Amino acid sequence: MIALLLRDLRLATRAGGGFGLSLTFFLILVTLVPFGVGPEGGRLATIAPGILWVGALLASLLSLDRLFALDHEDGTLEQLATAPLPLEAVVAMKAIAHWLTTGLPLALIAPLLGVLLHLPGAAMPWLALSLALGTPALSMIGAFGAGLTVGLKRGGLLLSLLVLPLYVPTLIFGAEVARRGAEGAATGTPMAFLGAITLGTLALLPYATAAAIRVNLR
Amino acid sequence: MSIWEYANPKKFMQTSGALLPWAVGLSVLTLTAGLIWGFFFTPDDYKQGSTVKIIYIHVPSALMAINAWGMMLVTSLIWLIRRHHVSVLAAKAAAPVGMVMTLIALFTGAIWGQPMWGSWWEWDPRLTSFLILFLFYLGYLALWSAIENPDAAADLTSVLCIVGSVFAFLSRYAVLFWNQGLHQGASLSLDREEHVADVFAWPLWTSIAGFVLLFVTLVLIGTRTEIRARRMQALLAREKLA
Amino acid sequence: MDLIVTELSVARGGIAILAGLGFSVTAGNALVLRGPNGIGKTTVLRTIAGLQPALTGRVAPGPDQIAWSGHADAVKATLTVRENLAFWAAIYGAGDVEPALADLHLIELADRPAQTLSAGQKRRLGLARLLLSDRPVWVLDEPTVSLDAATVAHFATLLARHLGQGGAALLTSHVDLGLHGAQELDLSPYRARGAAHMQASPAGFDEAFL
User: Fold this and answer.
1) Is A7 close to C92, i.e. CB distance below 8 A?
2) What is the Cα C42 distance to its own chain's centre?
3) What is the pLDDT of residue A17?
4) Does ipTM come in above 0.90?
C-alpha cells in the first residue's frame, strides 16, 4: 500500500504529473475575485472564507479526472485489480495521494492567499485548519466520482456534475468553520461535523468506488 | 405467487399493460378533481389571499420530488441485490419524472414566494435542499446517458443513487445548520396544531393522490418504454452476432 | 497447479457469446486458445482472470492464483524501468527485481525512463511482471505482440521454465511460440447460438430481454 502511495506521489511530482497546477489555479482564482467584486477590503474580508473554500474545492476538482483515467488507459488499473492488494485499499491510497498533492498544499497556502483578500489574522488558523480537515473528504468524494466515470471517453465534465453536489455538506461546514473563526465565534460544532464527514467518507466511500471501478473494468 | 414474478420483463409487460388504462383514467380523474376543487371551491386565505391556491400544485409536486428519489433508492438497491432489470429500469424511468416534479416545486415556490416574501428566490433551507436535489437528478440522468453498456450504466447509476441519497440527506441537515430560513412549516402533518384547516386539507389530499397516480402512470409508461428499448437492443445485438 | 474450467459461459456487452466452454490445463502444460477474430478469446481470458463475471460456470483456482497480462503493458512512462518493476515487486511482495530484469534482458535499460523504450521493450517490461507475481497460472492475451523473433523464442523458454516449475498457462497468440507439447483449443464450437437460447426460454423473453 505504501508502495502505491509513493508511486503516485512520484508520478505527480515528475514531469507532466500536474503537481502545482491546482495551486496555480487556486492563486489565479483568488487574483480574479477582486476584479469581479471590487477592491474594497471590507467586502473582500467578508467573502474571503467562502472564496477560499470554493476555490479549494474547484482546484481539487481540477486534477480528479486523471486520478484513475491514466491508470485505466495504460492497463495499470487492470493489473491492480488482479493484484493481491484489495481494490478498496488502492482507491483509498490514491485518494490520499491526491490529497497530499492538492488538498494539503492548498490548506498550507490558503492563509497566504487570505492576506490578498484581507482575511483577518484571527481567521487564518481556522481557515487552514478547516481546509486541512475538509479537503481529505473532497479528495475521497472526488475519487468516487472518478471511479464512476473512469471508463468514459469524455468523463471530465460529467465528473464535475456528479461530484459538485456531493461536495455541498463539506463546503457548508468547512466554510462555516472559517467564517465563525473570522468572527471570533465558537467553531466546535461545524468542526465536529466536518471531521465526521471526512472520517465517514474515508471509511465508506472506498467500497463504493472500488465497486464502480470493477464495473468499469469488465 | 411472489412479488418477484413481476421482475420478469414479460410478466411485468402483461400486468402493467392491463393496469395502464386504469392508472391513466384514475390519475386524470383524481388530478382534475383535486385541482378544480382546490382552485374554485375553496375560500381565500385571510392572510395570503388567492395566492394560497398554488399549494395544490406546490405541495404535491414537492412530495413526489422526494418520494421519486426514495423509490429510485429502493429499486436501485433491489437491482444491486437481486439483479432484476425491471427494477433498475423503473428507477431510470422515475428519474425524469422526479426531476420535473422538483422543477415544478421550485417554480411554483418562486411564484408563491414573490408576493409572500417579496422575492423570487431566498436561500432558505427547503428551497436550497430542493435545488440540490435537482442537481442530484441531473447527475443521475447524465450518468445514465453517458454510459453505453446498459448493465454497467445500471450498476453505476445505482451506486450513485445510494451514495447520493446519503449525501442528499447530509445536505438537508447541513443546509438547516447553515441558514434557519423563512419557509412555512409543514402544510400537512398528523399534529393538529400546525395543520392547515380542513377546507384546504381535503382538496390538498385529493390532488396529492392525483400526483401519486400521475407519477405511477408515468413511471409505468417509462418502464415499459425502457423494457422495449432493451429488448430491441438485445435482438439487434443477437442479429449482429448470428 | 491445474486450471479447471467447467461449463463456462461468457458475455460481451451483455450478450452471451460463448457457452458451455470446458477444459483443463494441468500443471506443466500450456493451452493456446484459437478462433477467428471476435469469437471472444480475450473475453474468456478476462473472465478467467477475474476481471469480469462469468454468466455461468466455474473456474478453479480463483483469481488470486492467476497472473494476468493483457493488451496494455501497465508501464508508467515517467518512471524508470527499475522503478516500474520495483513498484510491482512491492505490490506482489516479491523481493529483488534484478532476476526479472535479467531474465527479460532489461538490465542495460534499467535506469532509462520507460517513455524512451520501444514498444517491444515495453512489452518485455510488462512480461517481467509475470515473473515477479509468483502465481502458478499465467493467463496471457497475445503476449508476443510487438516482440521480434529472437525475443519471442526467448519468451518461449521463460514460459517453458515456468511450466517446468509446475505452473500452467492459458494464452492466445497469433504466432507459433514453438512450445513443446502445447495443446490447442478452437473456440468456434462453443459459440452461443441465438436460436438455441431463444428455445430455452419458451415463455417469451427473459431477464436478458431475449
Assistant:
1) no
2) 8
3) 65
4) no
